[in-house]
């Protein structure tokens, strides 16, 4: 089966209210607009809405608790468009936006109208401008589909509570009047996705929610709370969307080992929290290199090669503490970033990670993007640019198979191969967590790492080459560092290790 285009991407996740305010507004002028100051624009909810000046967030006053979501900083879609140069210079190829549809909150996970882009973000006109500009630049856009639940003041739910039999079937009520709601949060009643009328509105009809925005030009959907959707609904969504939009990317959010949700008849890939838990657990000293190695093999095999290569490998998100909070040492962060861009899967950069933003557990991880360059971690930015460039240049890191060699080692390191059917497309990746250098001979079971072949470390340009032995390599990797070793076939002026006649 041909690999989906998602496997080649570098994804950048944006929480729109916190990324940037579009011209000509400033933080002060944007927050003076009626949509932020007039109670009528708060969609009929009561109380405690507040606006927050962009760069005046005290350390002891983080953003509001997410289920409430009543503090607004004023970010919008035009602000994203104003900063596309930064993202392209970084090397990003796909944007993922958390929900943008009409909602009373800043996070928009409590939808009021799927067919309306929220005025806080500029409305549908702003989305169309963004889609057009992304297309001009050759960038992709993934939107967040929150189909499992809506706001408790959604017109459908209000009608259901008022006694409408039709809309009552959109939800699941008990005889006592209670209803199923997401994680027992009664402000977010769950939709009855087995109801054909609900399915028609959300995804089956040509003018349904999912199809409307794909027709507008977005490139795919990330499905919030995929396990809550259920496999039957997920398969139905996949079947309908793939028939009309065969190139659309469908990514499911699973916060566990979600192999059942990444198959040919369900999603192309997953939000790979299994990867995140294993990697950060290992680098933080909570699990062994052996467990980390098994976890990588498990998701690669369990998701299937295509599913693993299209799944999103994240280090942080709008739901988690940021990388610097979880792994406070710079060497830990560097090893995590190298692993994110070399292990199987699509790297997802949460906004601000590339400049070293701080942030603890949700909601502290949703601070406004820092645009003052004097506050940027330039070393982090340089590393992100370096590994993104390496991944783009090395097809095996995007589409190659995965073979772990960790079990052959002594010590606290993981070592693995990524390679394709093309002989010279091979990378040997070494990530050494130990406080000791990794100096070991490792047998390499790969047909195209030839005896005497020079290997160069892409993370250390200009460093001495390491020559392959007769089926082995002698590693010498410093403590708490990494290497990406690839063949260097330009050392001899009149000899090449890789000849066209040797191709498979």
Describe the structure.
The chain is an alpha/beta fold and 504 residues long. Helix content is 30%, strand content 18%. The chain is built from 18 helices and 20 strands. It has helices at residues 27-30, 34-37, 77-82, 84-90, 123-137, 155-161, 165-168, 196-204, 209-216, 226-229, 231-244, 273-283, 289-302, 304-310, 323-326, 330-342, 378-393, 395-399, and strands spanning 11-14, 50-51, 71-72, 94-97, 101-102, 113-117, 140-145, 220-223, 249-254, 269-272, 312-314, 346-350, 401-404, 413-419, 426-432, 438-443, 454-457, 466-467, 472-477, 481-487. The strands form five sheets. It has an eight-stranded parallel β-sheet. Strands 13-14-15-20-17-18 form a six-stranded antiparallel β-sheet. It has a two-stranded parallel ribbon with strand order 2-3. α13 crosses α14 and α16 packs parallel to α17 (378-393). It is globular. The relative contact order is 0.09.
């Amino acid at each position: 089966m041909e690999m989906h285009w998602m496997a080649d991407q570098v994804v950048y996740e944006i929480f729109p209210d916190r990324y940037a305010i579009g011209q000509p507004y400033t933080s002060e002028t944007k927050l003076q607009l009626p949509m932020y100051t007039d109670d009528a624009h708060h969609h009929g909810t009561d109380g405690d809405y507040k606006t927050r000046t962009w760069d005046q967030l005290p350390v002891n006053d983080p953003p509001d608790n997410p289920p409430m979501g009543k503090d607004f900083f004023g970010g919008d879609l035009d602000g994203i468009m104003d900063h596309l140069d930064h993202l392209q210079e970084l090397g990003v190829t796909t944007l993922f936006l958390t929900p943008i549809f009409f909602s009373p909150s800043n996070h928009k996970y409590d939808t009021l109208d799927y067919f309306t882009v929220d005025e806080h973000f500029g409305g549908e006109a702003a989305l169309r401008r963004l889609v057009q500009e992304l297309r001009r630049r050759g960038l992709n856009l993934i939107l967040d589909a929150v189909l499992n639940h809506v706001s408790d003041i959604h017109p459908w739910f209000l009608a259901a509570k008022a006694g409408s039999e039709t809309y009552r079937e959109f939800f699941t009520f008990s005889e006592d009047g209670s209803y199923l709601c997401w994680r027992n949060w009664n402000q977010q009643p769950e939709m009855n996705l087995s109801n054909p009328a609900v399915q028609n509105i959300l995804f089956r009809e040509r003018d349904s929610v999912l199809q409307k925005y794909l027709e507008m030009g977005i490139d795919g959907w990330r499905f919030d709370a995929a396990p809550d959707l259920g496999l039957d609904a997920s398969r139905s969504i996949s079947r309908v969307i793939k028939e009309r939009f065969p190139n659309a990317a469908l990514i499911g959010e699973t916060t566990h080992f979600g192999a059942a949700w990444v198959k040919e008849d369900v999603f192309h890939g997953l939000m790979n929290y299994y990867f995140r838990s294993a990697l950060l657990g290992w680098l933080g000293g909570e699990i062994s290199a052996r467990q980390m190695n098994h976890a990588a093999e498990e998701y690669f095999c369990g998701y299937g090669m295509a599913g693993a290569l299209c799944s999103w490998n994240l280090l942080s998100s709008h739901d988690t503490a940021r990388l610097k909070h979880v792994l406070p040492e710079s060497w830990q962060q560097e090893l995590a970033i190298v692993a994110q861009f070399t292990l199987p899967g699509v790297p997802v950069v949460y906004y601000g990670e590339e400049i070293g933003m701080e942030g603890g557990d949700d909601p502290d991880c949703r601070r406004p993007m820092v645009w003052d360059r004097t506050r940027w971690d330039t070393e982090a930015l340089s590393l992100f640019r370096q590994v993104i460039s390496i991944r783009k240049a090395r097809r095996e890191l995007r589409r190659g198979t995965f073979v772990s060699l960790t079990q052959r080692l002594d010590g606290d390191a993981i070592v693995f191969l990524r390679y394709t059917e093309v002989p010279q497309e091979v990378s040997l990746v070494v990530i050494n967590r130990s406080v000791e250098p990794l100096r070991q001979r490792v047998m390499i079971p790969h047909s195209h790492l030839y005896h005497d072949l020079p290997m160069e470390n892409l993370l250390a340009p200009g460093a001495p080459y390491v020559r392959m032995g007769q089926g082995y390599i002698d590693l010498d990797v410093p403590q708490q560092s990494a290497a990406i070793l690839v063949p260097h076939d330009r050392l001899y002026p009149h000899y090449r290790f890789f000849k066209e006649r040797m191709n498979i």
